[in-house]
Amino acid sequence: MTTSFETVTSADGTPIAFERAGEGAPVILVGGAFNDRTTVAGLASTLAPNFAVVAYDRRGRGDSGAGAVYSVEREVEDLATLIDHVGGTAAVFGHSSGAVLGLEAAARGVAMTSLAVYEPPFVVDDSRPRPATDLFDRVRALVAAGDRDGAAELFLVEGTATPAEVVKGMRDDPFWAWFTGLAHTLPYDLALCGPGNVFPADKLAKVAVPTLVMDGGESDAWMRAAARAVADAVPGARYVSVEGQDHGVLQQPDVLRGLLTEFLR
User: Can you give the pTM of this predicted structure?
Assistant: First the structure.
């Protein structure tokens, strides 16, 4: 797959880096926590035969700038700037907190032809503890103190309900360096999801583009419940469960080829 590296300047002057591959209608891929453009590259390659695919570094990640002060509005502007750059409208795919960003942008009227989201991490039932409302502040404080390990661990245990013993094992893996390398962006993901990951029903009701909501058949119960709730709240949305998959679906991008190629056209 041949890709081209580019940057575009967002509304506040922050450079946003992206890679473009393929030809056809534009599709923009939005990763979640601990993700940059490289983690959606496999999906970009999968979709490139049918679309002009844009994989970008959300602000603060990879080759993109961070800007002076973070806000959800700035991230929405980044996505809107990319859409304008590739022609004024585009389909969008978002994974996890990237799905939340896609829904946020759509609810604010950012120009999209369609929106596909995979497991936006809202908490809609009691199948897991709700994140504490001060989690954003505590993770940000650890980042400010230079404790990237602590920030990543706290985010995983309380933000994603990953068992503490699992995270302890993750810290012993060489790949943990990837998590700590992106720990400074975790407050961004928490800001997107909001205090307690509360389900934003009124906001979702404003989404007016064709929307596909997906989850994995092997995903945690709380993630699957959230996906179904989003599909119910977004007018006219379609819900699909991808059998045999979980939250790590980006590692198996070919399983999304048929669904996304059919829906995003």
Answer: 0.97
- 219-225's contacts with Cβ under 8 Å and 24+ in sequence apart are 219/119, 219/245, 219/246, 219/247, 220/127, 220/128, 220/161, 220/246, 220/247, 221/125, 221/127, 221/128, 222/123, 222/124, 222/125, 222/127, 222/128, 222/161, 223/119, 223/121, 223/247, 225/124, 225/125, 225/127
| Residue 265 confidence (pLDDT) | 79
* CA pair distance 177, 180, nearest whole angstrom: 5
Torsion of CA 253, 258, 262, 265, to 10 degrees: 40
Q: Where are the domains of the chain?
A: 3-125+198-263, 135-191
Rounded to 5 degrees, φ, ψ at 202 are -65, -40
Which residues are within 8 A (CB) of 217 and not within 5 positions of it... i.e. 6 or more apart? 241, 242, 243, 244, 245
Q: What is the mean pLDDT of residues 250-257?
A: 97
Q: How far is CA 6 from CA 51, 55, 179, 228, in A?
A: 17, 11, 25, 36
Contact present, 73 and 46 (Cβ < 8 Å): no
As a whole number of angstroms, the distance between CA 131 and CA 196 comes to 5
Contact 264, 240 (CB under 8 A): no
Chain segment 180-224, per-residue pLDDT in tens: 999 999 999 999 999 999 999 999 999 999 999 999 999 999 999
CATH number of 3-125+198-263: 3.40.50.1820
